[in-house]
Every structure is written in structure tokens, then in C-alpha cells.
Amino acid sequence: MRLFIAVLSLLPAAIAADPQVTFSKDVLPVLQKNCQGCHRPGEAGPMTFLDYQSTRPWAKAIKDVAISRKMPPWLADPHVGKFSNDRSLSEADVKTLVDWVDTGSREGIRQDAPQPIDFVEGWTIGKPDKIFEMPRSFSVPASGTIEYQYVVLPTGYTEDKWVRMAEVRPGDRSVVHHVIAFIRPKGSKWLAEAQPGVPFVPEVRKGAADAQSEGSMLGAEMLVGYAPGMPAQVFPENSAKLLPAGADIVFQLHYTTNGQLAIDKTKIGLTFASERPAFRDITLTAANNRFRIPPGDPAHEVKAQLTLPIDAQLVSLMPHMHLRGKDFLYKVVYPDGQTEMLLNVPRYDFAWQLVYALETPIALPKGSRIECTAHFDNSPNNKFNPDPKTEVRWGDQSWEEMMIGFFDIIVPSNVSLVRRTTGE
To answer: What global pTM score does this model have?
Structure first.
């Protein structure tokens, strides 16, 4: 009995916060690894975590978001798939942050701190080989709704280029919700009415019958995207994205007002491979634009799929929905009928457009089928729902919806691929 009481008396000490945890020795390494990519001057984070003075006022908030797993943003189910860019905090990291706050958020000895990360100002990919910038600034009003703006930028290239790295740099991050840079091949009918360099809003939106045609966004290929927390695009080793001769780059810009007039002039930087790579990175889409989400439906299901016509390796996945997006699941059905779960996002968040890079590429034999299943919450219980009383269809704006399962494959660089998307 005495032994039992003695053991119990030791338990509080075993689970109590470690009083030796300090910012310099313990917390700063966690912030460098997981947070400073966004939380530093000029980046997406609204506050900086580079040193003790800038971090200390946010100590309680850091504890709260670490415990709730809201930060760093990572939405994947940990039981499905392994991802090289997984930035979720380990249990040990969470305990470090919590213990630091619970024991007074002390700075500790500055000499214990690791060396600061030498972040590159401006471009995280280094100096780009080529920069394409909007030739005209766009004025974002203080209030109101802004239709998606499209800006066509001719490359002028007379030969193929192979892009190793790509990065979008918004002119004013405070009003840029997201940017997607597409590759529009020569001869494409998509945005045929747009004047090069001039922000453009299509007068008539494409209907469901032709939204997957060569005259639509889904007939182009995604080059690189930007959203808060999304890193620059660095393609897998020995691979690159093909920018064909005569192609245009098209910016799709989603602006949101914040109460103040703002001016944006977004640009994209590209770094080219010195020679033709062994593999070509291709972004494909399993998309469905024929859905109708009934008013008040808390879990409307929408599916899409794509069957690969060639052997390939899967390297990354990126689900995309809008404010009613609830969850998103990828799986592959192999030619022999076996299935494998690839990515499960059980609580989709429109605020974080994340790319999930596989830790190890997955071989997809010809005939493999990527299947995507998404659910939408159009009920009053969805606090982000713009209007639970309306039927919702495909559209650009946040109060409309999209269902796109982007995914990247790599194939030998001399292989061509017909891109198709299929909805159910």
C-alpha cells in the first residue's frame, strides 16, 4: 500500500510542465522548422516569430493553436499516406510549446539559440531565370465583391522550356486570396477574347456541357499556385514542367477586400532546367462541374475520376473546393482491381489551399483510376456558408462551388499525354 501511495505521489511531477523549457533552447527550433516560413516580415503570417521579443506577446495564442492543431495548417488524416511536406507538429513539439507557456514563457540564455535561418528576401527559389509580371496594376476597392480576374501573359518563346522551379509573388498579400498560374497552349480557345496583359472577366460563364473542353480552364494545365501557407513549386528531382513553345501563362487572381483601397501587381518567377530532364511533371485534374447541391444539404456527395492512359508515378495531390467544402478523399483503383487510399482530408478548409507531396512516388500502371469523393455542407450549421437556402452549382466565386482533385504525375519527358477529366 505504501509503495502504491509513493508511486501516486510521483505522478504529478512526471506529467507536470517542464520548468527548464525556454524560448532560446527549445521553442525557437520548433518555430524555425514549422512556422517561420510564413511568420516573418513580408510573408503570409500576420505576425513574426523570428525572435523572443516578437513571439512573446503571442505565447498563449501559440499554445491554443498548437493544442487544437490549427497551426501549422495541415489537414491530412495522419493515418492515410506519408507526405514529405507534412508540417504538423509532433506530440513532443506540442508539449514543448505548451510547457513553455505554462512555465512563464521565459527567454532563457540567448547563446542557447540556434543560428537564424538565412531566408532569401523576395524569391525563395533564388533569382529566377525569367519573371512574368502583370504589366498593369490592379486596384482592389475597399469593399464589395470582385470577380476573378484573368491576365494573359504571352511568353514569346519559340522553343520549349522546362521549368524546374516556379513561384508566385503577390504585390499585396493582404488582398490576394489565391493565384493560379496556368499554361495555356498555343491555339487554345480559352479566354480567346482577352487582350494580353489586361485584367479580364469572361462575360459569359461556360455551362456544364462545355466546361471541360479546350475552351475552359480545365483544358489548361496548372503551372504553380499561391495561397497563404503554400510554398514555391519545386518539381521532383530529374523532372520539370513543360512550357511549350508559343504557350501563354494565364494568371487567375482571386482578390478579397479588407476595408482599405489596395494596389496589386502580381508576378511569377521561373527557373529553367539547363537541359531536357528525364521526367516531365504533369498536373492532371479529376473534376466534376455538373453537380447541384440542394439547399440545406449537410453532406452532399460529388465524385470525379480519371483513368491514366500510360504508366506514371504519382507525386502530389491538391484538393480544391470552396466555402461549402466539407471533406475530400483520393483513392486509386489499380488495373487488377486493388484499391489504395491516397489522401483523406476529413475537415476541408477553404482558407488553406495545400499541396500534399508524397514522401515516396507511387507507381501507377496504365489503366489505374484516380477516384475523388467530396462532400459539401450547404446547411445552416456550416458557419462559412454564404446562403444555405440556395441551390449551389459550379462557379468561380466563393459563394459558388468547385470540385477539383488536382494531382501531379511524372512520366518520361518524351511521352505525350492526352489530358481528360471525368465527373460522375
So the answer is: 0.82
